[in-house]
Predict the structure.
Amino acid sequence: MSQPGIKEQRNIETLRAPVIKDIGISLFLLLASRASLLGMFPFGAAFFAACFDKSIAYVGVTVIAAALMTTVGKAALVKYILAALIFWIYTRFRSGKNTVIDAVCCGGAMFIGGLAFLIYNFAGVYDLLILLVEAIVTSVMYIIFQKAYALVENRRKRSQTAQDELISIAVSIGVMITGLSGIAFPYNISLANIVSVYAVMCIALHGGLAAAGSGGLCIGFMSSMSSPSAVVMMGIFGISALFGNLLKAFGKFGVAIGFLGGSAVALLYAGNTFSLPITVAEAAVGAIMFIATPKKVHNIINGFFSRSLVIENLSTDIRIREYLSMKLEKTARAFRSLEECFENASEKRLKAYNKDVASLFDEVADRVCEGCPNAPKCWQSDFTRTYRSIMLLLDTIETKGILAMDSVPLSFREKCLRCELFVVEFNHVYELYKKNLVRMGEAVTSRDLVARQYREIAHLMDGMSEEITVGFSFREDMEEKIVGEMDKSGITAFEVSVVESGRGKIEVYLSVNKENETGLMEGILTEVTEAPMIFEKRVAGGLLKFTSGAKFTADVAVRQLCRDYSNACGDSVDSFVTEDYKQYVILSDGMGSGRRAMAESHITMKLLKEFLHSGFGVKTAIEMINSALCLKLDSECFSTVDLLCIDLMTGVSEFYKIGGAESVLLRGANVETVFSVSLPVGMMSDIKVQGQAKRLSDGDTVIMMTDGVSEAGFGTVRTEWLKNQIKMPFDTMEEMAQAVLETAVKKSRDAVVDDMTVAAVRLIEN
């Protein structure tokens, strides 16, 4: 990743004469070239590649040579000079900057230079191993030096510093200090150790506790990596930096005392000063220099730390509220549509009848026995005998279906004064009773359908609960990178929140100082998240919302024709993309044609679209719609569902066909046919919803159609002509859909005997 703000080093740049400002960078190159690691000197070449102006490359090569002459002598001069020259030549031919590629090439240049050196000094496989390690170190240091250089060059434009940049600065300082090795004052006082103490104290004063500890460790190790005591020095500086930072509330004196206290702890642990890589005199001189440094200098140093990276996360309740609000609003819209379906489907509602056998007897008695002189005797004195006699009559009518005079027992005929009237009324009341039983059964069926809907709603709520708890996560690692990269481009992020769903969708919420720079922010977010990010809208609280794009795009085209002499098309079709990157293409064919068929397919389409948009699964949505249509008891309401669901992130597609016509699929060079496996919705209360999964790739094409197209041909093999047509090259799906429709009409001898609908879909990789 290229660093914003670094001076552009173009390939066509010509060599120039050095100027005064080049002295500083040349001194740093000199120190880096003198730094060694286990007898290797890779830092000079890495610094030259990452930071040095290539328009004065000859100065850089000279500085590297001078540094090596003062340390290793002529022994390895050829290797490092050759590595620097190879990388310089590479920069003259590269097409553009890329940090990773440049780092690899830097390490490769070191490896090639080392191979040239080994031609004359090869001692064995060990030399090759050491050379490989040196090349890897050179690549890593290229990235570290470039991060540190970018921060120094653009510090005035920056308001924050990322933690990785602070570490890069600390490592770079350690390398420069190592370059001072060998320079000593009287009494064997090392200049490198004095500068190390001074640098660690500065970090302890101006940085946080974490920055002080990590900076002390890095400087301690890097400044003494050429000696076996590197680990000991790292520990001393790390603990001393922490002690100094804890006392920084007392200013420079507090930091100095804390640092010396940490060094004293190390001394007590070691037992004597001679076993330590740093002396008391060196620590004291470094502390005095630190205290004596003017305030103005400390203010400059403080600029690197006072505004270090601090992320103010969007509060969790705001995140959850935004997410839940969106989900519940869409679910409410879906249920409102379902309510409209119930209200418009039928204005009649069946009443439940709770009559039993006793109510039947009471009805007959009221109709026949009222006013009969024997009624008190039959229904009071001889109630048991009368009840048994009527039960025999009920058994007879249930067996024969009707009660006749000759089937009435003689004992009942002799006793009842109104026997003929009783038989007539009994038949009539029994017929009403049976009708009520049928209606009661229908009401029970209706209640079962509603209960099924409640069950599906419960499943939906369970799914929402699971999605809320584990279906998404907050990516704090990305949040830190976003703030750092935004700051490098001059954009200050006050709030940042990155939400990643279980399906891989990323949403970023930002509050920044430059809200009109959405294009620049899209590029930064795309680079950090490694997914195409697009500005979507401004949400509650003034936050900017960015969402990730999908891997694929579906090109969808639709063509329709009404049946001859019809004023309305009974087919409904729609195509849309949901927030979880699912592309839906849906065809619904109402039974017959005309306005009634159009109404049937339209209500199915409307409900299905609402449910899918609100987060329902396809199976749940179809089952709920089917149960709703089954409740339209005043008239039949049947319609097919032909649904294609494409996951635009993976290309995995599912075909759901509930009474729909077959579809034709072109995958590569193979043509497949996808058939229906279930009856239309609204026909049966319990339907089988089974998806057929296919994985689609770039360029794969699907033709979906209603039966008006699939059955065109008068005797020809069904869909065989479509298999040939889908193989034809069409520039757009509009052309393909139109060609299929025109061919279907021709095969029907120019007679459109049924509504025709075609949807052509092609998957395109972004």
The chain is about 55% helix and 15% strand. Confidence is low (pLDDT under 50) at residues 1-12, 307-314, 345-355. The longest strand covers residues 552-561.
